[in-house]
Amino acid sequence: MPEAKLMQGNEACTLGALTAGLSFFAGYPITPSTEIAELCSEELPKVGGKFIQMEDEIGSIAAIIGASLTGRKAMTATSGPGFSLMQELMGYAAISEVPIVVIDVQRVGPSTGMPTSLAQGDVMQARWGTHGDHPVVVLAPGNVRECFDLTIKAFNIAEEYRVPVVVLSDETIGHMREKVVLPELKSLTIVDRKAPAAPAGYLPYKADQDGGVPLMAPFGKGYRWHVTGLSHDETGFPTNKGDVAGALIQRLMRKVEKAEPLLRDYATESADDCDVLVLAFGSSAMSATSAVRQARAAGVKAGLFRPKTIWPFPEEPLRELASRVKRIIVPEMNLGQLVYEVERVVAGKAPVERLSKVNCELFRPEEILASIMGGSK
Amino acid sequence: MSSGLDYFRQNRLPHIWCPGCGHGTVTGALTRTLAKLGIDKNNVVVVSGIGCSSRASGYLDFDTLHTAHGRAIAFATGIKLSRPDLKVIVMTGDGDCTAIGGNHFIHAARRNVDITTIVMNNNNYGMTSGQYSPMTPTGMLGTTAPYGNVERPFDLANLAIASGATFVARGTSYHVQLLGEMIEKALLNPGFSVVEAVVGCPTYYGRKNKLGGAVELFNWQKEHAVNVKAAAAMAPEKLEGKFLIGELYNKAAPEFTAEYARLVEGVRRKFDDFQGGVRGCAQNSD
Amino acid sequence: MRTEFRLSGSGGQGLLLAGIVLAEGAILDGKNAVQTQSYGPEARGGSSKAEVVVSDDDIDYPKATDPDFLLALTTDAYKTYGKLMGKGLIIVDSTVCLDPAITARTVSVPILDTAATAIGKKVVANIVALGVLGGVSGVVKQATLEKAVLNRVPKGTEDLNLKALRAGFELAAKAAKA
């Protein structure tokens, strides 16, 4: 039986990555993500993996895409300013379908903001940070154990669907330490990308138009294929045909859309019979959990919906709950980002209330509690 | 030994480069050199950025990676560190390499990572129709320098040497034989190697600056390039307005991926020993 | 039962490590524990705060809301966090000037001096403080905390740190009698 130990969120992300088979990390130091790079620099050599500190975040994501093309599971970790720099190549990974994992430990922005302080302002950047329509999956851990679990899941999704996956952590989750009991290694599912059997006749981007995932050959194994960020056809070479380019984008988007029920991950507490539903993710959800429990203790029917997969958003379960509740409160450490998606999904079935906070300090449970109680009177 | 043409994806030809452009000549010099060295196609990765030069990767029969503007060397660094056994070649241009990609270039040189970088220098951004680049000489015209370029250009070779590259050479698309020899030395150097290939761009740079067509641009190369060996015996005033070709720097230094492999050998141990780490108070906020 | 600790002082005093060891001790005792911190850009000299929440139950909210114990090793930290104290006990270093405006129960303990003179190493003040917190709170058994300290401190410093921890427990016992 694995023992309980005190573990930091960033440490759990790293351990999850190593457990998933991480063997290449490239990164650039940035608070509050730096512990991940430090641990990778220490641990990867021990398992025959590779670590490099690049000259900037653009170089970091470029290097992990290069490494992933050689067949390695590759990752970088960063925070807001660095994540912004990576956006162009997030799009590159999306269109060239190279699996990568990016851990974004959010901090206060915009710009340099407050490096050591909490915010959740990268929700939209994680989804729409790069230009053009593109697939991306974003997972948001709500505690240290989930940093471990969701980083493994991030690699599994990246490998299975050949998409960039973002683990959207934050300063509080990343730096806090809590008691964690890790699962038995043999209980875990680890997914590896599917490779073609032989070079003969390999068409690197041939896939079912309805969200199919092409087989991926590693570089250096005789396939001699071409990868480009240009719109391309199933041979991998650039195309000037609008309908071919359009079909590619549609297949890429469909990959994630089609997989949404499988990618869907969320937790609920006291949600089945609640009048007031609190929808929160990441560190805000810890405050929300406390608030919901206090409200229940006071006799108010409050419940929690905590998405762990935030992109694609778990529409169906929320829509189902929304038809039964009187109010939905969305606390976020920003001035309103995920709430837009909640409003879209709920589509007027229940009033959606924003609860925003940008003073760098995690919601106190009583702030959310006041909102729950305020509307119930 | 296979011929140079065997290293092309012949079904991707003809290429899109303009008549008189030097990029095809440089690419041909590379494939002939690879053929001469008998390098297995399956062990080569060619990485390119964005621009006319960077279209080369699509025509070559290796694992090829056409990346984003300026980033070829950073992608290549990931590939090389991951698979040090592969021959990694970057094909780039003056804008791609020295403007948007300048930082990756100097850091790859500093690390002395075993990548051969061929910089096709046509003194402008050809693909976007002739804007000035960091290697456009002062006073020359570009579509964004309609009154003449007021900036000073990089000396790419000196930049590479100062940054730590261990083999640096210059050739031209006119001096094809020499270019091939320089590429050969670059490929054999276990470290970061840079070959600047001076090429003409008759469509934009040549036309904008009234330098004539393809033939005149080749003649310009012929008349202005001086072999570094010959230059050693020449008076400085004779070298006025000329540029040097040939091997400009060649000095061994520890190579990054080999050094990293040595480090790994030293610290390898079983995964079970993972202890995580508590960095105590060492949380800074840079 | 939920017990909240806030450890405050200046960067470089090792309070984060003290908080980590306290949390690890609680886990060794079979409890739940969460440790958080807030810190500024300075690695040394700026204000530093670590918090530890220990509970027999699930801990939903990781931060201290109304600390049961505030440790303040500097006057700045005492003034900043002392005035936020409600039901809890403030433990200050004896070098800290007390402020009559801060009304929470307060004990003054010679933590820095004990480290510097009795133990002979200023750097172990955090472990002395940990002993004081352990003794005063009774949340973690002394033997467990000793084990937690030994798990964390660098090789060769075990005796020094154990001595510091025990000195802290003794200071706590004296403070309780006073």
Give a brief description.
With 377 residues, chain A is of the alpha/beta class. Chain A is 39% helix and 20% strand.
> Could you give the distance between the termini of chain A?
48 Å
Number of DSSP strands of chain A? Answer: 15
Largest sheet of chain A: 7 strands, mixed
Which fold name fills CATH's third level, the topology of the largest domain in chain A? Rossmann fold
Question: Within the largest sheet of chain C, what's the order of strands?
Answer: 2-3-1-4-5-6
CATH homologous superfamily assignment of the largest domain in chain A: Thiamin diphosphate (ThDP)-binding fold, Pyr/PP domains
Task: Supply the CATH architecture of chain C.
Answer: 3-Layer(aba) Sandwich
Question: So what's the CATH class of the largest domain in chain A?
Answer: Alpha Beta
Describe it.
The complex is a heterotrimer of chains A (377), B (286) and C (178). Chain A folds into 2 domains: 184 residues, 3-Layer(aba) Sandwich (Rossmann fold); 110 residues, Rossmann fold (3-Layer(aba) Sandwich), CATH 3.40.50. In chain A, 39% of the residues lie in helices and 20% in strands. In chain A, the strands form 3 sheets. In chain A, strands 3-2-4-5-7-6-13 form a 7-stranded mixed β-sheet, with helices on both faces. In chain A, helix 1 runs parallel beside helix 6, helix 3 runs parallel beside helix 4 and helix 9 crosses helix 12. Chain A is globular. Chain A starts with a strand and ends with a helix. The mean pLDDT of chain A is 97. Chain B has one domain: 3-Layer(aba) Sandwich (Rossmann fold). In chain B, helix 4 crosses helix 5 and helix 5 packs across helix 6. The C terminus of chain B is likely disordered. In chain B, 36% of the residues lie in helices and 17% in strands. Chain C has one domain: 3-Layer(aba) Sandwich (Pyruvate-ferredoxin Oxidoreductase, domain 3), CATH 3.40.920.10. Chain C is α/β, with parallel strands linked by helices and 178 residues long. The mean pLDDT of chain C is 94. Chains in contact: A-B, A-C, B-C. At the A-B interface, helix 1, helix 2, helix 3, helix 4 and strand 9 of A face strand 2, helix 3, helix 5 and helix 11 of B.
